[in-house]
Amino acid sequence: MNVHRIVSLGVIGVTVLAAVYMGYNRSYSLSHESPVAENIRDARTGYQHYVAETHRVGIAEAARQVRENVERGDTYTSTHCHYFMHAIGNAAVAMYPTLAGALAHGDDYCSYGYQHGVLQVYSERTGLPELMRTYTDVCDSEFAGYMNEKYSSCVHGLSHAVTNMLDLDYQKAIELCERYSLESARTNCIRAVFMEYTDVRSLSMNNPRFPEDPLFPCNDVDSAYDKDCFQYTIYIPLVTNDHNYAATFEVCNGVRSDAARHSCNRGLGRIAMSENWDNSGAIATAKCFEAQSREAQADCMGGVTSRMLTFNKSLTATYAHCETLPQQVVTQCKRDAYDYFLSKYCHEPELANDPEGQQACTSDFR
């Protein structure tokens, strides 16, 4: 099993699992017989285990146990990996007097689960009134070097936690994000607002304006946020449609602008790749071709490719992955990979082991 399958936006929503059991006190009205409720109960045991292990053997060893279990193909750990890293991050807060001290021990494994766990407990302990007053100072004061990975993960994790503490009041959460002076920080923060909103709403199947507005709240916010809102919120109608991609592409066709439509289709590609990584992209690609228009198919494939790069941060590896896809999409896949890589990954340390990436970042060879 490929370890990257663990970062999927699965039906249960791994971020929401943490919200259910670690202090947010949201009511989901889940049936005790529902698969979601059963999955949450199952995950809670592992969460408690990794909290205890972190206190017993330390952060590094507890994280190593998670990695080792995933890499040997343990489905239980891979399914709940983000949640278990959340648990280690939760426990780490008690071990370090500063936020920076706790965050220094995590990386991007399992979609930054460790950092999300740290920021969640930090936010709960700090309290919403104080966070509302000092929101941007939390990460700005802890990390001198803006634009680095730890600063970015701090901004993103804090936004997830506070959005939930605000009871999914996306307008207030966006207003907080707009306080950041750096555009990259604002974008990263706002993206987390829509991700958190989507995670919780998809779990509870509770869209307050369904079916007349299946992509709420995207039409309720400024169009400047279309790219991130529609890309993530499309997951809610996908779940509502029982993962019928063809029907959900039709939802994208009805959005308010060309930019929103492209983003919506691209979001379906990212989800398809996340949920079908074990199948080397072939199933995700097939999902894209359930769209009726070539535009939607191409947008979706762009989402598939960007998700590949999110996993491996290597243009060389992504090109190799493109070669495994149906022949008619290989060229488009490589073109999308090249464009996305240049926009995101030329500063990554992994570049040293990525020949295609090095060439892309130093010259326009296409």
Polypeptide structure, described:
The protein is mostly helical. It is 67% helix and 0% strand. It has 20 helices and no strands. It has helices spanning 14-21, 35-57, 59-71, 75-79, 81-92, 99-103, 109-126, 128-140, 149-165, 170-177, 183-204, 226-233, 235-240, 245-253, 258-275, 282-288, 294-312, 315-322, 327-344, 355-362.
What percent of residues are in strands? under 5%
Order of helices and strands: HHHHHHHHHHHHHHHHHHHH
How many distinct helices?
Answer: 20
- Fraction of residues in H or I helices: 55-70%
Shape verdict: globular
Radius of gyration: 20 Å
Report the biggest beta sheet as strand number plus sense, adding barrel if it closes: none
> Distance N terminus to C terminus?
33 Å
Q: How many extended strands?
A: 0
Mean pLDDT: 81
> Which residues form runs of ≥5 with pLDDT under 50?
1-38
Structural class: mainly alpha
Summarize the SSE layout with pairings.
Blueprint: H1 14-21, H2 35-57, H3 59-71, H4 75-79, H5 81-92, H6 99-103, H7 109-126, H8 128-140, H9 149-165, H10 170-177, H11 183-204, H12 226-233, H13 235-240, H14 245-253, H15 258-275, H16 282-288, H17 294-312, H18 315-322, H19 327-344, H20 355-362
